[in-house]
Write a structure and sequence with these properties.
The complex is a heterotrimer of chains A (280), B (311) and C (484). By secondary structure, chain A is of the alpha/beta class. Chain A has one domain: Aldehyde Dehydrogenase, Chain A, domain 1 (3-Layer(aba) Sandwich). Helix content of chain A is 44%, strand content 16%. In chain A, helix 2 runs antiparallel to helix 4, helix 3 crosses helix 4 and helix 4 runs parallel beside helix 6. Chain B has a single domain, classed as TIM Barrel (Alpha-Beta Barrel). Chain B is globular, with a radius of gyration of 19 Å. Classes of the chains: A alpha/beta (280), B alpha/beta (311), C alpha/beta (484). Chains in contact: A-B, A-C, B-C.
Chain lengths: 280, 311, 484
């Protein structure tokens, strides 16, 4: 008899720990071959609430770390992922039904995405900041600042890259996040959280929930501690509903093209302009 | 007790004063210069300014003739209009004091004081004994007001106790014979923080008036400098109950300039300071511009220099 | 001698030439509204009627948007960028030529002192056009991508507090970036916008590039909801800003919003005290406090509070309230009866909730809408006057013990538009600037604006920025964002 696999339990990632949903619920994920793979947690609004608490309390520390420090951590995530590539490849193949070659390309692109955004952390004010030539004896500068807590609804496919390409820019901008993985393709997100937990990323900076976006989206939209939302994984209708509710605290809500761009970082940042007189 | 007489106590007091922000102070002065003073308020201001003028001649080439002509102008600025007030004072070098005093007394200017510059004016670079002699000499000659200069070298090199001592001594010589104006020479102090500190130092040492400049160095009586000095006398009054006067000198040539000064006084130290016992303007050419503006208000036409006397 | 009384020094209003009535400015011409409805605009200092203004309803809005769309498609988007820039330069120069006229009309329609419209509003408005004119043919260097494109037709709604300046903040960048606009001025202050329409004619701006549709909140809603605009640019209350965000949630329209504020003005014990007093006065009494970024919460370090309040009260006694057309007036009229009622309503909660009110003695004119400069001391964070935007000459004074506590109190609000820091210690100023959650931080100064300086808020003070390179981005399509 060939050896029995020890299957993984897929739990949530909140505050640096891996709790099950407080509701106790799970749901079934089958692979591309319709075979059962796992029972990830079905996150509830209370899990969301806890995740936001964790993200909110981690945000000042993350934003006040030096940009160099943030860049190093994002790069470390790439390093750890590189070491775990095969695990991700297997998972993607099983889930998406693509070839190992295609899966490997996806994993490599995901790793390279971390590297790319890692390099952006300490260059943001160089490309977007300015010293403004005002008409008076004042030093006047504009500099980007983190927004706060950003919720992400990750794309379904590509199941790993879709997560990474929404997550990395939000972190590069000094924000913390609650990421809701794709309902049908959630597993790489949780495996990624294992990478994050071992990459010097402070707990609470990233929190990952698995479950139904239809259930969680309205709660994200109405949560007054969430400052921004990336709606990549939502339908157009869900996006509109979220924007309607999100108007209550003027959430910054965006959908991006599926590619890397510094604007993905800057969209979740504020611009602060400071005046100071020049004199003796 | 504000200070205990020691240099340490003086330095501590002065360094505890709040700082002045240059851009903010200049903005406040600039805003006050936009006040539009017209018609009846302009007429009032012109006459007030005339009564505050310390009509000045401080030239190497001064002669008895020049000084006597100045005295005539001081008593009767406009011979065709006897409603024009006489000026606040005459200001001359101390070897001209006797001539000025005698002339004024002879032509009906008995109540116009003579101010003498003293203490090695304008540089202040002489030793203590020379400065004391200089002052005593002016008082003996009949000076009613002494305009002394502070030792800027001592101030800028931190010897504040020396600056203080010197003022005290000169004040002692003035006694009740003369009031003492202390010239800070703000153009050499450069920063508004220094102007504030020097103002307090002079007041604590016994100045009756603090004065901006000798008129020999630019910049002299700029609006922000006068603003800072007016703030100092205002706050000193709140602290001690004593009102000290302010005299800007140098660079105030037109009626517009003079009126701006009066607005500064009005909206900083307050209306109590709007009289010659607490505010003077050191000037020479200003008087004729005031007279011409006065004529324009009276007649409705622009005046000409031909209609005012050069001295 | 009673003292130095400033005789009245009125600016002549002969230059104003306000017509008895104005139509809507659509497609380069003044036209009557289709239903012929009009409303009045009055001088809030005297309650006198100034003019009858055309009221734009849905049909007129539709016509205006159609004109803007046609102008965009056929003319403005095809025009070489440098020519577009030259139109803006022309507009700027004509505004400078007619500066005095604009200033007088602004004061008559708005109630603000002539000194402020003359020295602040009008020069800044012209400067905005001059600044943005220079960007028109340099957009590829603006950091918004190598081939930036305009969004198309923009619906713009502006408030009554700085009518011409807010118009400049909206129209200048929009046109520089290649868009066409339909702008709705505030109901109580339409006149300088209509004068601006004349300037567009004098500059021979192509028809339909700028359209001015006067009206009220219903007009504004019709504009926001028009299906053929690509973007909404709004300055006004947070409440209406949220309503606009909801209105566009199911559309492809983007929006920039400049909303309310309750800015903290922090005075530390090492501040230049006299300049801080000026900054406090400027912060809340400039423009009668009708300023979204007004320093309406004074946070004083407790150990200098008494001394500073003494000086503040003495300084407030010098504030001259009265005829806005008098060149010596410091505080003019409240813009409308509605606004005056609002100020009374919220300020009265200050008395009711136990704060201590103080105003210097002032003679208020019998006609018109007036409120004396007022401070409330003994205010705490939970008072309504510490949380709600009053939008009038009313200052709430609170204290703090340590810098950290000052920052905490300053940030304890759902607004985040501006903040002030008064300290002579450089490192402290930079530290405080970093901590404060506000889009505009004024250190040792206040209420300073410049076309090169991006302006806008965090949190519920709005979305996006106006001015500078950052303000341009709002009028160009994004490379990375999608609006499916």
């Amino acid at each position: 008899m060939s050896r029995l696999d020890v299957n993984k339990t897929y739990k949530l990632f909140i505050g640096g720990a891996f709790p099950r949903s407080e509701s106790g619920r799970v749901y079934e994920i089958k692979g591309a071959n319709k075979k059962f793979i796992a029972n990830p947690s079905l996150a509830s609004r209370k899990d969301l609430r806890d995740a936001v608490v964790a993200a909110k309390s981690a945000q000042p520390g993350w934003a006040n770390a030096t940009a160099f420090n943030r860049g190093q951590i994002l790069y470390r995530i790439a390093e750890i992922m590189e070491g775990r590539s095969e695990q991700f490849v297997d998972e993607i193949c099983a889930l998406e039904g693509v070839t190992a070659k295609a899966a490997k390309l996806q994993v490599e692109e995901a790793i390279d995405t971390w590297v790319w955004y890692s390099g952006w952390c300490d260059k943001l004010s160089s490309i977007t900041g300015s010293v403004n030539q005002v008409s008076g004896p004042f030093y006047n500068f504009t500099t980007p600042e983190s927004l706060g807590v950003v919720a992400i609804f990750a794309e379904s496919k590509p199941s790993l890259l879709g997560v990474v390409r929404t997550l990395a820019p939000v972190l590069a901008g000094g924000n913390t996040t609650v990421l809701v993985a794709s309902e049908n393709f959630p597993l790489p997100a949780i495996t990624l959280s294992e990478v994050l937990a071992t990459s010097d990323l402070p707990s609470g900076v990233v929190n990952i929930l698995t479950g139904k976006s239809a259930e969680l989206a309205p709660w994200v939209g109405s949560h007054m501690e969430i400052d921004g939302v990336d709606v990549a994984g939502l339908s157009k209708k869900q996006e509109e509903e979220l924007k309607l509710v999100g108007a209550d605290n003027l959430k910054r809500i965006f959908r991006f093209n599926p590619e890397n761009h510094p604007e993905r970082i800057l969209s979740f940042m504020e611009q602060k302009t400071v005046w100071h007189p020049i004199g003796i | 007790m504000i200070i205990d007489g020691s240099e340490a106590s003086l330095k501590k007091f002065l360094s505890d004063l709040p700082p002045v922000d240059q851009v903010g102070a200049e903005a406040r002065a600039a805003m006050l210069s936009t006040r539009s003073i017209k018609t009846s308020s302009k007429a009032w201001a012109i006459d007030m300014a005339i009564s505050m003028v310390d009509l000045t001649t401080l030239e190497g080439a001064d002669t008895p003739g020049k000084v006597k002509a100045l005295c005539a102008k001081a008593v009767r600025p406009d011979p065709t209009d006897l409603t024009v007030p006489s000026v606040g004072a005459i200001c001359v070098y101390n070897d001209m004091v006797k001539i000025a005093r005698n002339e004024l007394d002879a032509i009906g200017g008995r109540d116009i004081p003579v101010a003498a510059v003293a203490t090695a004016f304008p540089s202040g670079r002489a030793n203590r004994a020379v400065k004391e002699l200089d002052t005593q000499d002016a008082i003996n000659a009949g000076a009613n007001e002494i305009d002394m200069v502070i030792d800027r070298g001592a101030f800028l090199s931190g010897r504040l106790g020396e600056v203080f001592e010197e003022i005290k001594i000169i004040k002692g010589l003035c006694g009740d014979k003369a009031h003492l104006k202390v010239i800070l020479e703000t153009g050499e102090l450069v920063t508004y923080d220094n102007v504030r500190k020097a103002s307090y130092l002079a007041m604590l040492a016994g100045a009756d008036f603090i004065k901006t400049s000798t008129g020999k160095v630019a910049p002299a009586a700029t609006a922000p400098v006068v603003l800072v000095m007016l703030e100092a006398v205002r706050d000193y009054y709140a602290l001690t109950g004593t009102k000290i006067g302010v005299k800007p000198a140098g660079g105030i040539r037109t009626t517009k300039d003079a009126i701006k000064q009066l607005v500064l006084v009005n909206e900083t130290a307050g209306p109590d300071w709007l009289n010659p016992s607490l505010f003077r303007i050191g000037a020479s050419a200003l008087l004729n511009d005031l007279l011409m503006q006065r004529m324009k208000l009276r007649t409705g036409h622009y005046a000409s220099a031909n209609y005012v006397t050069i001295d | 001698m009673s003292g130095f009384e400033y005789a009245s020094a009125p600016e002549s209003n002969a230059i104003a030439n306000i017509a008895n009535s104005y139509g809507l400015f659509i497609n380069g011409k003044f036209v009557d509204p289709k239903k012929g409805k009009t409303f009045n605009t009055i001088n809030p200092a005297t309650e006198e009627l100034l003019s009858k203004i055309g009221y734009a309803d849905k049909l007129d809005i539709d016509l205006a948007v159609k004109s803007a769309r046609l102008a965009f498609t056929k003319v403005w988007s095809k025009m070489p960028a440098k020519e577009r820039g030259k139109y803006l330069y022309r507009i700027a120069r004509i505004m400078q030529e007619r500066a005095r006229e604009f200033a007088v009309v602004e004061t008559l329609d708005n109630g603000k002192p002539i000194r402020e419209s003359r020295d602040t509003d009008i020069p800044l408005a012209a400067a905005h056009f001059f600044y943005h004119a220079g960007w028109a043919d340099k957009l590829e260097y603006a950091g918004v991508g190598s081939k930036p494109k305009p969004v198309g037709v923009v619906g713009q709604i502006i408030p009554w507090n700085f009518p011409l300046l807010m118009l400049a903040w909206k129209i200048a960048p929009a046109l520089a970036a290649g868009n066409t606009v339909v702008l709705k001025p505030a109901e109580t202050t339409p006149l300088t916008a209509l004068l601006f329409a004349q300037v567009c004619q004098q500059a021979r701006l192509p028809e339909g590039v700028v359209n001015i549709v006067t009206g009220d909140g219903i007009t504004g809603a019709a504009l926001v909801n028009h299906p053929d605009i690509n973007k909404v640019a709004f300055t006004g209350s947070t409440e209406v800003g949220k309503a606009i965000a909801r209105s566009i949630s199911a559309t492809k329209k983007s929006a920039t919003l400049e909303l309310g504020g309750k800015a903290a003005n922090l005075v530390f014990d090492d501040a230049a005290i006299d300049e801080a007093v000026e900054g406090i006065v400027n912060g809340i009494f400039f423009n009668q406090g009708h300023v979204c970024c007004a320093g309406s919460r004074l946070l004083l370090q407790e150990n200098i509070a008494d001394e500073l309040l003494e000086k503040l009260k003495k300084r407030m006694s010098l504030i001259r309230v009265g005829d806005p057309m008098d060149k010596n007036t410091d505080l003019g009229a409240i813009n409308s009866k509605e606004q005056l009622n609002r100020i009374h309503e919220i300020s009265n909660t200050g008395d009711a909730e136990g704060a201590k009110r103080w105003s210097p003695e002032c003679k208020l004119p019998s006609k018109g809408f007036w409120y004396p400069p007022t401070i409330f001391t003994g205010v705490s964070q939970s008072h309504r006057i510490a949380r709600e935007e009053i939008f009038g000459p009313v200052l709430s004074v609170l204290t703090f013990r340590t810098p950290a506590e000052g920052i905490e109190k300053a940030n304890n609000t759902m607004y985040g538009l501006s903040a002030g820091i008064w300290s002579d210690k450089g490192s402290k100023v930079l530290w405080a600037a970093k901590q404060l959650k506000a889009g505009v931080i004024w250190s040792n100064t206040f209420n300073k604006f410049d076309p090169a300086s991006p302006f806008g808020g965090y949190k519920e003070s709005g979305w996006g920025r106006e001015g500078g390179r950052h303000g341009l981005a709002g009028y160009l399509t994004s490379e990375a964002r999608v609006s499916k």
